[in-house]
Design goal:
With about 240 residues, the protein is α/β, with parallel strands linked by helices. Helices cover about 30% and strands about 15% of the residues. This is VDHAP protein.
C-alpha cells in the first residue's frame, strides 16, 4: 500500500513481483526463520526475478521474461526476505539521473523538482518516500552512493566481488564494465539495516550458489570496532 502511494507521487516502481503473498504463507510454515524473515525488500530493475523482465530501461529487453531468480534474489528468499517490487533506473543505467523512455522520470520524494540520483534512483526514491525499508541497488561509479546521498539514505557499495551480479543474459558483457566492477549492495534508512542485510547475504547459500564470492561471513565485530561509517570498517567487513 505504502509503495503504491509513493509510486503515485514519484514514479519509482517498474513492476510488482507476483507470488510474494504466497511466499509469505510458505515462510510462516517454516520452522527455520531467516535473518530477513518477513521483511519486504525492493530490488533494482536489472536484477533478475523469475517471471519478470529486467529491462535496463531499454525496449530491446521488454520481451525477455526471466526463467530464473538471480543468485541474490534466491539468497534473500532463503533468508526469509520477500522481494516485492522492482524499481526504476535510467536507460542503460550509466547515468546519474533516473529516467527512461519506458517508465518515465522518477522524482526525488524530498523535493519533486529534484532528481533522486542514479542509477539506483528508484530504490532511493521508494525508500526515502517510505515505500520500502530495505532495497538492493548496484554501484559501479556511484549508483548506490549518489541516490543514497540525494535522498538522505544510507547505502553501501561493498568491496569488489563481495556480492557479485551475474545476469542470465549479460546486460553489460563488456570487459571495461567487468573490470570496473559493478557490485550489488543494500540501501536503507540506517546503517544497522545495511549491516543486517550484508550479514544475511554473506551466508553458506550465497557461497554455494556463487563460488566466485569469497566464503567470508560478514564480520560484525570489525563494523562495531570502528566509527559506524568509517571506510576501513567497511573495507574489512
Amino acid at each position: 500500500g505504502e509503495a503504491l502511494e509513493v509510486n503515485r507521487e514519484v514514479n519509482c516502481v517498474t513492476d510488482f513481483i507476483h507470488g510474494c503473498e504466497d511466499q509469505l504463507q510458505k515462510l510462516k510454515k517454516q520452522k527455520e526463520k531467516g535473518l530477513l524473515y518477513g521483511i519486504p525488500i525492493s530490488i533494482k530493475d536489472h536484477i533478475d526475478c523469475k517471471g519478470h523482465i529486467s529491462s535496463g530501461g531499454m525496449v530491446k529487453f521488454l520481451d525477455q521474461v526471466k526463467e530464473e531468480d538471480s543468485v541474490i534474489v534466491h539468497v534473500l528468499k532463503h533468508q526469509g526476505g520477500i522481494p516485492f517490487v522492482k524499481t526504476n533506473i535510467p536507460q542503460t543505467m550509466i547515468n546519474y539521473d533516473c529516467s527512461n523512455l519506458i517508465f518515465g522520470q522518477t522524482l526525488n520524494p524530498l523535493n519533486h523538482q529534484k532528481s533522486p540520483g542514479g542509477s539506483s534512483g528508484g530504490e532511493g526514491a521508494l525508500i526515502a518516500g517510505g515505500g520500502s525499508i530495505l532495497g538492493i541497488g548496484s554501484d559501479m561509479g556511484g549508483s548506490i552512493r549518489l541516490p543514497s546521498s540525494f535522498c538522505g539514505l544510507c547505502g553501501l557499495k561493498p568491496t569488489g566481488n563481495r556480492i557479485r551480479y551475474i545476469p542470465a543474459s549479460v546486460l553489460f558483457s563488456h570487459p571495461t564494465v567487468e573490470a570496473a566492477g559493478s557490485m550489488l549492495g543494500p540501501m536503507a534508512r540506517d546503517v544497522d539495516s545495511l549491516a543486517l542485510c550484508m550479514k544475511a547475504l554473506l551466508c553458506q547459500e550465497m557461497f554455494q550458489l556463487d563460488p566466485t564470492v569469497p566464503p567470508i561471513p560478514f564480520n560484525e565485530q570489525v563494523r562495531l570496532r570502528g566509527a559506524p561509517m568509517s571506510s576501513s570498517a567497511h573495507q574489512q567487513s
